[in-house]
Amino acid sequence: MNKIVNDFSITVGTKNGSGSSTANNTILRAIFKMGIPVSGKNLFPSNIQGLPTWYTIRVNRDGFIARQEKSDIVIAINPDSFAKDLASVTPGGAFFYADDIKQPIERVDIAIYPMPIKSIVKNDPNVPSDFRELVGNMVYVGVLAQMIAMDLETVKAALTFHFKGKQKPIDMNFNAVRAGAEWAAANLEKKDPYQLEAMDKTEGLIMADGNTAAAIGSIFGGIQFAAWYPITPASSLAESLNDFLPILRKRDDGKHTYAVVQAEDELAALGMTVGAGWSGLRAMTSTSGPGLSLMTEFAGLAYYAEVPVVVWDVQRIGPSTGLPTRTSQGDLTFTAFIGHGDSHSVILLPGDVYECFEFGWKSFDIAERLQTPVFVLSDLDMGMNQWMSKPFQYPDIPMDRGKILWEKDVEELKGNWGRYRDVDGDAIPYRTIPGSTHPLGSYFTRGTGHDENARYTEDSETYVRNMERLARKQQTAKQYVPAPILRETKGATIGILAYGSTENAILEAQDKLDREHGIKSDFMRLRAIPFTKEVDAFIEKHDQIFVVEMNRDGQMQQILYTEYPQFATRFRSVAYQDGLPAAAKWVREGILAKYESVGGKKPNAKKTVAKAKAAPAGKAAVKKSAGRTK
């Protein structure tokens, strides 16, 4: 049997609320500490406890860590999903299961490994009876560790990290790991090819989730106020603010320099944020699609009154409650034109955990420079799952407060200024901060019609003049938003445009398109709207541009149509949404289905197109929630 080293996927099937999260994250971090590229994705239901949950781990020596649409190793702990978990194992794969599950196993094309989890943990006198189910999860960690050569020292290090050095829970859990490994060594004969070997490819990296990264970045960016209302999958962003702010933002006298408020709903959350932004504080809120819908009116007020605020939207599937614990990129067009009337939003699109951190602080600079709401669109996969990342670095540039007139400035102007007057052609007026300026710096802020001096008016010409100036801000914004990331390939014949968490799937799809089909591609990952000059050049260069995104209707392509109508025929949508993180398979097949060769045959045309037109099957049955998951 040929070994398969550092290149396989593991799926653990358990129940929501069973305490398996610690065990699964221990496996993930132990492999990471062995220096092997790895990623973990939690597929959980929208109820609190009882329904099936899956956790998938991708191990790949070459660094391809997007979700795979296959499971080489499956660990089945849940009787309710046992049959489905058994059927999901790749031929030649391995199936580990709790031996108290008495269900038929008829497959002969896989390795079968029963595990006496309950009896092992029951025999440990140091585990209290009410902890046996929780600690029992560590038994399958030990069995797996023995069978795939996972280093037990890295397992212990992962437990030490998780329990923050508290020796009693570390010892109790590690004893269960060791007991599982010792039982497997004495009782199981390895019949599958999968194995780990230490590498050095994670040296200098960390593991973090995007919501935590965004919170830390916001703190480093000088956040002073946050208002929020709980909603999956954004809640942990605000919760991380509450975890880290008391540590990082406390004065020498013990007083805090911030406020975090849980509002009564999302409408109030953004209303409070707009008030704080108007008063001069660096203010933000976080939400997901249904909450963003409720924030629409205040978003329009902030746009029209030109109040700098930051809104994090950690996207999930809609419409309505949709699939509240599944990932998506479905809020893009809604956010781009949020509000009634005419508006154009500034949107940042982080593509990895480090950019969640970076855009955490950078979004405040951009919002204050442009005096407008800045929306940061992450998603559940990026926000709640663990990713490898380079370490976060404190911003190395001064904080940009934008065009503010302080007391001395107003006094020198002798009141000769206008809150909404464009004096230098960049469409951005000067503002003053309430309570910190000369009395001549005061003005009345309103969401109704106003002239350059903030005076109420319903004059049509003044309204048109003001709206045209607001539209011109989009041109100025191009100087300040993050430029796209371009990866060029020599001899490329097509272009790929994408954004957000799809990058890993696209990089793997590119590799296979080149090796298996001879299709070379340039890849540009968009990081902001409005689009910058680099995007202009990329679109002009390529005759075929595949726009990859996780939604049904090709929302980014719709926006590209409006911005580049002269190149509309060049865009080909590769849009797909089933709630699961992007996989290289559907990206590759989607591109092949719409690829047009120039002067040659379409590669594997009939077979490939037929496969691509068939929608990939989802990995989990989903029960829709009756109300919004909070």
Task: Characterise this structure.
It is a single chain. Helices cover 37% and strands 19% of the residues. The protein has 4 domains: 4-202, 3-Layer(aba) Sandwich (Pyruvate-ferredoxin Oxidoreductase, domain 3), CATH 3.40.920.10; 208-389, Thiamin diphosphate (ThDP)-binding fold, Pyr/PP domains (Rossmann fold, 3-Layer(aba) Sandwich), CATH 3.40.50.970; 407-477, no CATH class; 485-613, Rossmann fold (3-Layer(aba) Sandwich). It has 21 helices and 23 strands. Strand 22, helix 19 (555-563) and strand 23 form a beta-alpha-beta unit. It is of the alpha/beta class.
Summarize this structure briefly.
The chain is built from 21 helices and 23 strands. With 630 residues, it is α/β, with parallel strands linked by helices. Strand 13 (309-317) and strand 14 (323-327) form a beta hairpin.
Shape, principal axes of CA atoms: globular
Count of β-strands: 23
Strand content: 15-25%
Return the CATH class of the largest domain: Alpha Beta
Distance between the termini: 49 Å
Q: Provide the number of structural domains.
A: 4
Q: What's the rounded overall pLDDT mean? A: 93
CATH superfamily of the largest domain: Pyruvate-ferredoxin oxidoreductase, PFOR, domain III
- Stated plainly, the CATH topology of the largest domain is called Pyruvate-ferredoxin Oxidoreductase, domain 3
CATH architecture annotation of the largest domain? 3-Layer(aba) Sandwich
Structural class: alpha/beta
- Specify the biggest β-sheet: 8 strands, mixed
Percent range of helical residues:
25-40%
